[in-house]
Amino acid sequence: MKRIVKLISLILALTTVMSCLVLGTSAASFNDLKDIDKNADYYDAVEWVFSKGYMQGTSSTTFAPDQTLTRAQFATFMARFSGADLSQYKGKNVFTDVKADSWYGAEVAWAYETGVMNGTGNNKFSPTKVITRQEIAVLFNNYINSKGIVLEKVVPETRIMDRGSKRCADWAKDAVINAYKTNILPLDENDCFNPKTQITRADAAIALYALNASIERLSAEREPLVVAYFEVSNGTTFDELKDVDVVNLQPFKADGEHKEINKQSLNRITAIRRAVEIENINPDLKYVLTVPVNSGPDVEKWMDSYADCDDFASEVVSIIRDYDLDGFDFDYEFPSGAVPQKNLHYFLTSVRNKLNALETGKDYIVSMAIAGGTWSGSLFQDLGELQHYVDYLNYMDYDLHSEKDITYDHAAVFDSIYPNGSTYADAIMSINAGMQREKIILGAGVYSQNWHDVQAAAGSKVGLHCYGVHNDEKPIYYNSYRAWIDYEKIDAGIEYSVGGYYPHYDETSGSLSFYNPSTKEFFSGDDDRSIEKKCGIITDFNLGGIMFFDYTQAAGAYDYADPGEEPQRVWIFEKTANWLGK
């Protein structure tokens, strides 16, 4: 009998201790905790979790930072972190070893039903089992998935060096990789994750602090960029550069076979800068050298080896130095796929290192332009990894798509009949790849590679999604046609044409097109509405900004005007800045 009484007393004592670890006689304030080292790496994290009420003290004066963390405790502080309404979980019996009226019963039910935590087998939860780093990785992964969150991969690819008993379990590998790439659970100084190391309360505070910071990064306040490609040989007005942040001066063609960049138009850079400075149009404007990959004979031959990559980078940086430019953009829209990813990464790293070695004090830009769509995503294999070698990627979200002999919206903002063939789809693809949102620059193109011999139905004046032949000749630059757009007539369903071309606004894709039923020509491009919608995607997802191809064709446009009326200037870059909230 005495033995039974002692056992009951022991159980009650343990229960009291366990409850104190999470709920107990907690300190009234953080300053009451006597076992917190102000110089410890956990100090800020513990102060934060305590102030938020996610974790409490183990007594009125202790936090017990070195004490290990149990599954019941983890369920409890994750429920608090989530702001869960536990009233609907009270009294639920989910596991045989968790009493519904225990101090953690509702929290365990919440964790299980939301998918944050599963049982350990045989209908048990094992509430007193101590959690390891790999388990925390899995449970955090479950949590962000339950919330529909995709965290940014802020850490470049690192090989985990854990060996033998330290290697993580198969069921934890994906979560472990995600945890260290998102910097929630970093590797140690030996590039080891230490998956089976038990988590202490201080470790848990640090991890939760990091998780919260990663989530908050997604909505961190930033001012989106307006980037515009600028054809240096094309004389144009500079007025609208007042609303542009970065001009990508192009095309400076590279000849990989002979290992040289064509410098013929470089003198135009000085003239452009002088014009902007004389008029005091935009003193903060950044000037970036653009080298297109498909612009010369076998440009990629200059990336065959690391030595070639260094030589190519040296040539690029020498131009940037000599003309006092602000960075480099690699227009890689049409790669052959022959250049190994490691060579591309090495080349971009070499450019960055050589720019930094100039020691001018400038914060140089290194960017890259890529085609939109899953084709581009698959070609570069891992956008989440590629992003670490550039400040941002410029997505060319404006070229005509075709599939199975049908034409498709140019500059489609949203998916229509072509899955993953839109600006919105590119944003989602990039976010799902773990790209940092400020590195995603969506594109707008005020031009069109038109289609001819478009076989629309008899009497149709639309031409959308019809069989046609792609015209590989010089594109139609859309600015001359923006003066045709009468939104009032389009919205009212009033049929009209200019030069035999009939406009059609597709509500599903958010894009405008023109079709000439007599000549059977079809073309489309970004207009004010589609650009505004793209800006909406940028602000909704807190992305890095918008890119125009190109300024010399987008600036200086005029609105539609009825015969006899004077058309008004369309300040598209000023509008864009307003749509982005700049």
SSE blueprint:
Layout: H1 2-22, H2 43-52, H3 71-82, H4 105-113, H5 133-146, H6 173-181, H7 201-217, E1 225-231, E2 246-250, E3 254-255, E4 260-261, H8 266-278, E5 286-292, H9 306-322, E6 327-331, H10 341-357, E7 365-371, H11 374-379, H12 383-386, E8 392-396, E9 402-403, E10 406-407, H13 423-432, E11 440-445, E12 447-448, E13 451-452, E14 469-470, E15 476-477, H14 479-482, H15 487-492, E16 502-506, E17 511-516, E18 521-525, H16 528-541, E19 545-549, H17 551-554, E20 557-558, E21 569-570, H18 572-579
Parallel strand pairs: 1-2, 1-19, 2-5, 5-6, 6-7, 7-8, 8-11, 11-19
Antiparallel strand pairs: 3-4, 9-10, 12-15, 13-14, 16-17, 17-18, 20-21
Write a structural description.
By secondary structure, the chain is of the alpha/beta class. It is 34% helix and 14% strand. It contains 18 helices and 21 strands. The strands form seven sheets. An eight-stranded parallel barrel has the order 1-2-5-6-7-8-11-19, surrounded by five helices. Strands 16-17-18 form a three-stranded antiparallel β-sheet, with no helix packed on it. Strand 17 and strand 18 form a beta hairpin. The longest helix is centred in the N-terminal third of the chain and has 21 residues. The protein is globular. The termini are far apart. The N terminus is likely disordered.
Task: List the keywords.
single chain; three-stranded antiparallel sheet; 18 helices; 21 strands; 14% strand; globular
- Between the first and last Cα atoms, what is the distance in angstroms? 77 Å
The percent range for helix content is 25-40%
* Poorly predicted ranges: 1-24
The rough form would be described as: globular
How are the strands of the largest sheet arranged?
Answer: 1-2-5-6-7-8-11-19
- Rg measurement, Å: 30 Å
What's the helix count? Answer: 18
Mean pLDDT: 88
Class from secondary-structure proportions: alpha/beta
Number of strands: 21
Strand content: 5-15%
Please give the largest β-sheet.
8 strands, parallel, barrel
